[in-house]
Amino acid sequence: FSTVSTMTDGDYDYLIKLLALGDSGVGKTTFLYRYTDNKFNPRFITTVGIDFREKRVVYSTSGPNGTTGKTFKVHLQLWDTAGQERFRSLTTAFFRDAMGFLLMFDLTSQQSFLNVRNWMSQLQANAYCENPDIVLVGNKSDLSDQREVQEKQAKELAEKYGIPYFETSAATGSEVDKAVITLLDLVMKRMEQCVEKTQQESPNGGGSGKLEPLPAAERKCAC
Ligand SMILES: Nc1nc2c(ncn2[C@@H]2O[C@H](COP(=O)(O)OP(=O)(O)OP(=O)(O)O)[C@@H](O)[C@H]2O)c(=O)[nH]1
Ligand SMILES: [Mg+2]
User: Fold this and answer.
1) 33 domain-assigned
2) What does pTM read for this prediction?
3) Domain count along the chain
4) Domain for residue 66, yes or no?
5) pLDDT tens-digit readout, 54-81
6) How many degrees, rounded to 5, is the angle at CA 11 between CA 103 and CA 29?
7) What residues form DSSP beta bridges with 66?
8) Is residue 127 part of a domain?
9) Measured in angstroms, how far is the CA atom of residue 195 from the centroid of ligand 1?
């Protein structure tokens, strides 16, 4: 596994844009606030349009035999979209520029889980490619007595889509970091593949062996 630790200042090697989507009230804003500030906000203030949070992390690839490979400074931009229908055309317009997606539902709402399929088609229609990096997140795992979605159901859906699944709680912080890091890992691996491919195609261009962030158009190659 790759490792990620927090960093506060200095330059960065990569700007990675992740986007949270899902029904209103599933906990997107609260989840991102837990991830960036390690705090919980119990009040529901619905997001109007779009918002974003940021965090710097150090990302290390794993080398052979568990050694640390390359290390990169990553500036994470976390886009927080409104789940409400009335903002749909605005929020889906942001899908195109995100590199990875946290597709969230509420474990205490069967309806929010049923809507995951709709969000998935919105993603396929509007993301940078038909097969973007996505992590499925069932949030509010702390509310076990109100649970309406069984882990098995959600796991089956995630398997069908071929994406990882996590049950998180923004209230306790359980699995929150893991879900984000897994998504970051997928995005970084896709970018690395893409760079390797580019270097193979033009050996003169990649002489330094250092990974460079790629413009949006070139990222498409690993889809
Ligand atoms: N118990 C519990 N409550 C949570 C959790 N995550 C979010 N909430 C609460 O659920 C409510 C809705 O959370 P938000 O983060 O505002 O929901 P949202 O998905 O951003 O909603 P929109 O902005 O309308 O799309 C708030 O009252 C949160 O405190 C959780 O993991 N556990
Ligand atoms: Mg919100």
Assistant:
1) yes
2) 0.88
3) 1
4) yes
5) 999 999 887 777 787 889 999 999 999 9
6) 25
7) none
8) yes
9) 38
